[in-house]
Amino acid sequence: MTAPARGTSVLVITGGRDTHLARVLTGLERAEPRPDEVVVVFMNQPGGTVPATDLTVVTGHVRAPGHLPLAAARNHAVQLARGEVLVFLDVDCIPAAGAVGSLADTVRRHPGTVVMGTPRYLGPGWAEGQPKVPDDGRLRELSVLHPARANLGEGRSEEWHLVWTLVLALAAADADQIGGFDAGFTGYGAEDTDFAFRARDAGLSLRFSAATVFHQHHGVHRPPLPHFADIVVNARRFRHVHGTWPMEGWLGRFRDLGLVDWDPDGELLTILRHPTEPETRAAHQPDAAY
């Protein structure tokens, strides 16, 4: 007989981000209260190991050569988790001390709710000269809000299209009701928006929370040309399932670059050509905060 789920599980998926993972675990060691367990799933990293910690840690591995199996890895983490509340935490995100506890408490006080926390973004060089992960006050000083999400506030919302799995909590039973993440979304793009839309369609509610995590800096591509092929495939799948286009900003940029023929009001999304290496290098913004 399977033991009933209890407590809070924090779910982290990672692929070759060992330094970031170590800082996330430091944040979780400081958590008040601590999570009952941390589930770490390594993607395409068969030798991946968790740094020494006194947290209760469960590990798993998912392999999908040639792709970043985000949806499959999150599903595997859910399967391994034993908590009644699940908190998805991006491997880039160091949680403030009260973040996990606040998110879990909100889920318990509002049954049938998906709760998204608030990411703040650490700038380039934030860790220089820091012998250890700074405290929450210093991390707040070193970070900024994403301008597109700076005014979300707290409480109920219908803005499901803004849901990210950077920091997201819900009951394990509700994750099961939704059916987990759709592993048909391969690689980067739209799998978390699809999860959010299916949560909405299943009758769950959405709340935003001030529970804060600090996103560790890494360079980005604008537009994300390294993920061009995955984004096109996943956008088509999302349109087929939900009748609307995801990632419209990126698709518009691809169209402007002459990479795709795209009709935002119809069904058309055709690849005209793939980005060149010089175009991909030019899109890289190493100093962007978000």
What is the mean pLDDT?
Answer: 94
Structural class: alpha/beta
Helical stretch tally: 9
Low-confidence stretches: none
Helix/strand order, N-terminal first: EHEEHEEHEHEEEHHEEHHEEHE
Overall number of strands? 14
Task: State the end-to-end CA separation.
Answer: 46 Å
- Helix fraction by DSSP (H/I, runs of at least 4): 25-40%
Approximate strand percentage: 15-25%
Quaternary structure type = single chain
Shape: globular
How would you sum up the major sheet? 10 strands, mixed
Report Rg: 19 Å
Set down the secondary structure blueprint.
Elements: E1 8-14, H1 18-29, E2 37-43, E3 57-62, H2 70-80, E4 85-89, E5 93-95, H3 99-109, E6 113-122, H4 136-141, E7 143-145, E8 155-157, E9 167-171, H5 172-178, H6 191-201, E10 205-215, E11 220-221, H7 228-242, H8 248-256, E12 260-262, E13 269-271, H9 277-283, E14 284-285
Parallel strand pairs: 1-2, 1-4, 2-3, 6-10
Antiparallel strand pairs: 4-9, 5-10, 6-7, 6-9, 8-10, 11-14, 12-13
Can you tell me about this structure?
With 290 residues, the chain is an alpha/beta fold. It is 31% helix and 24% strand. It has helices at 18-29, 70-80, 99-109, 136-141, 172-178, 191-201, 228-242, 248-256, 277-283, and strands at 8-14, 37-43, 57-62, 85-89, 93-95, 113-122, 143-145, 155-157, 167-171, 205-215, 220-221, 260-262, 269-271, 284-285. Strands 1, 2, 3, 4, 5, 6, 7, 8, 9 and 10 form a 10-stranded mixed sheet that branches. Strands 11-14 form a two-stranded antiparallel ribbon. It has a two-stranded antiparallel sheet with strand order 12-13. β1, α1 (18-29) and β2 (37-43) form a beta-alpha-beta unit. The mean pLDDT is 94.
